[in-house]
Amino acid sequence: MKILIVDDEEAIRDSLGRRLSREGYEVVTAANGLDGLRNFHSEHPDLVILDIVIPEMDGLTVCQRIREVSDTPIIMLSAQAIEEDDIVEGLNAGADEYLMKPVRGNEFVARINAVMRRASMSASDSTTTYDDGYLSIDFQRRHVHVNNERVHLTPTEFKLLMVLVDNAGKVVPQRDLLEQVWGQEYVEDIYYPRVYISQLRRKIEPDQANPTYIQTEHRVGYRFEKQI
Amino acid sequence: MASFVIVALFLSGLLLILSSSSVLLLLWNNARQDVYLYFSFQIVTVIVWLFGSSFARTFEQAFWMIELGFGGAAIATYLLAARLSEIYSASTRATVFVAIFFIIMFRLIISSLFGVQNNFQLTESGLLNYQFSTIDTYLYLVIILATLWITRQNIRKINSNILANGLTFFAIGQLSALLLSQLRVFAVSEIITAFSAFLIGYAFLQRDIMTPLLGRTRQLEVMRDVGLAMTSEVPQGDVLNNIAKQAAELFEADGSAIYLKRSNELVLEAVDTIPKAFLGYSLPLGEGFAGMVAEIGQSRLIPNYRREWKGIPDMPLALDSFGAVIGVPLIFREEVVGVLLVINGWTNEPFSDDDMQLMSLIAPQAAVAISNSFLFEQERALKDEVTSAKQQLEAFLTSTENPVIAIDRNLSILFANPAAAGLLGVPQAELQNKPLLTTIQPQLLPNPRQLLRDIHRSNSHVYEVEIKEQFYLCHIARLVAPIEGWVAVLNNVTRLKEIDRLKSQMVRMTSHDLKNPLFSIMTYMELLEEDGAPVFDKDMTHYVQAIWKQLTRMERIIKGILDLEKVQSGAPPMSPTDLRKLLESCAHSIEDQAHSRRIAFEADIEDGLHDVLADASQLEQVVSNLLDNALKYTPAGGSIWLRAHNLEDAVIVEVEDTGHGIPREVQNQVFDRFFRVKSTQTETVGGSGIGLSLVKAIIDHHKGRVWLKSEIGVGTSFYVTLPALREPVKI
User: Fold this and answer.
1) Which CATH number is A2-119's, of 3.40.50.40, 3.90.1680.10, 3.10.250.10, 3.40.50.2300?
2) Are B651 and B721 in contact (CB under 8 A)?
3) Cβ of A79 and B527 within 8 Å?
4) pLDDT of B103-134, one tens digit each?
5) Which of residues 510-549 of B touch A (CB under 8 A)?
6) How many angstroms away from the CA of B519 is the closest CA of chain A?
7) How far apart are CA B52 and CA B69, in angstroms?
8) Could you tell me how far CA B367 lies from the centroid of its own chain?
9) Mean pLDDT in chain B?
10) B63-85 vs B34-55: helix axis angle to the nearest 10?
11) Residue B731 has what pLDDT?
């Protein structure tokens, strides 16, 4: 497993690198955004850890660039965020995880493992397909078509859609969603579902403002409505 | 010749008719005066004499009428003169009257016994000639001369030249009838006496009716002047001087003075013909003649101040110079407001009771006049004060750079200062009475719902508004009577906002810059701890733990600063929040900690607790901060309670502990940023000094209130109230 760390602080690259090496990961580093992108393409890491405030190209842009070509899990690691909006912005850029410095080693490793778990999630645990003419999902092959056009979903988005479709017609509470999609460590991070649901809606709903597939049950959770 | 007599008699009769009418007038005016009785007696007797004189020319028997009338007239005149000269007392007068009666009786007895015959004859030409008997002549002569003598001796006492002359002429007329037959024959004496009687009547009329009437006119004039002074809005000093002057003139007095009551003394406020230098002289209440009058509230007359007044003098030199003095209280609305003194020097005449009576008539009007002028003066002073205050205020409002706009209840502009006019780009004069809604762009107006709610709650509302790229804090307050409406004061906070933004930016950047090294230190520490664990001795392990403790503290401080910054930097997204659920979750999360520290924890949350409009995560932070604090400062074996109850339109949350307590003198500082209670018990407790300031900032943001009650050694209770949301949260 190879992890790319992009951070302008040498001490962080070094300490975090050592910590992750000790956990058995192979670590490559970059001190700025451009180098980070370059290393991503040359090293093909399995996970990217991105600081947001970095020279040459900021972390959010790097994240978007990576997302354009890859589903590789990305963890944003920032010292700057103080508001939920900052986190949402990071997640919207395509990150799978948003962590705030300082974060303890144990927790950090746990989160990395969780992200990796999601990414390497076996597709075979569900054999169903869904097709209503407009939206079709092939869980086996992890293919989603909207109006007969292939749509790319990140692993997290796909897992989210899967959990919802599995429970179609029932409300899935936020906590359950967090636990099932992200993992036990995430049950308090209630903004994750919100961000990802909106990403998902953008990709599959005919009208994002008036969703027909994914309904919000205010302050409780979300519900997938089959249109068959 | 006889025709001359007839004319003379006719003239006399005419004069007597006039005199009789005077008698009637006098008696009508005052029938009790004995002097009028004497005068009536005189007129009646003269009439009898005249009748006698007229009829005797036809009937000889009428001669007795002449004698009766002539003698009676002499006696009546004597009595009148004696009465007017006041030479007898009432008892002597009676004696004299009786004496004269006896003399006449004696005369009648003699004439009847000895047949004393008066001479009586009609001449050829029809003229009447008569001669009293010698004894009669002497008798009448004595009486008439006595009359003359008394009259001439007492001209001053009679006090009327016309009266004295009338009496004199009357006596002369009778003398002429007695002594000069020529005058007697032609009835000249009758004319003289009738004319004299007319003069006396006239004198009486003048003295007792006309003069008093004129005097009354004068009094009315004075009363009118006082009344005028009363209604005229002139300064008080002038009114007082005017009244003093009028009073002195009315009584032709040497001077007058007005004292006014001031708290517990009487102060000389106005004088007439008395030296102005005495003004301001004060008498303790109840002292001096004026003080006495003020105290008893009734008019008093003192005939001779110099001799009779034994108290302290009413003003300097009073004891040396004052003679008769009248003092009247000036009473307004049943309260003595002052005293008016009318003063004669000791060489001048005394006052009469009538004078005092008149003074008492003027006094109430004077009192009203003084009080009115006093009120007027007060009103004017007040008006001046108001005007100057208004001018001052206008000057302030005009010169201030802060725009100020006032509107009435119909939302018309009452006032806009130049700064406001400049801001709106409308000339100041044109703003007056303009409707606000058409003058000001709608986006500059406050949110009406928030405005009404805030005004209802605290009578003021503050909101931020951007005009011409400048930021203003607009403070709206309700105007109360007499003008009902609203006033808005704008403060340009552009610069402050910029500074605030820079501060926030700096805090963010600093925190960011601190977080990176902190993060790497922590990561290295973890590595060090792992690698070193096998070789660390006890001390080294302790050092590592100490470093961790400080790192954690540092982390908490940075997080606290950022949290506080977050709360203060903008309105959090508020949504209806189930407070009960939130509190229960907080309670749940500290149960374990409390248990492990051997602290009893109990939550008492009312069923059906109102929901609140809040940012749930911030509210959670508040409750957990309070609970964490309670845990931190409560020693093992203590207790912590979390309670929540509904109030009328709010919810109250209480966190009580049996901790060390917070000293009274610092209780109002605990919500300050970075404040920590310093004491030996709390020294070991780590804290950033931010928790409670964060609590306060969040609660302020939620329009709630937070406060505490604490006692050293007993414990601390924190209270939080939040406005209740009426509709429950829909799930």
Assistant:
1) 3.40.50.2300
2) yes
3) no
4) 777 766 766 666 555 566 666 666 677 777 77
5) 511-513, 515-520, 522-524, 526-527, 530
6) 4
7) 8
8) 14
9) 82
10) 160
11) 42
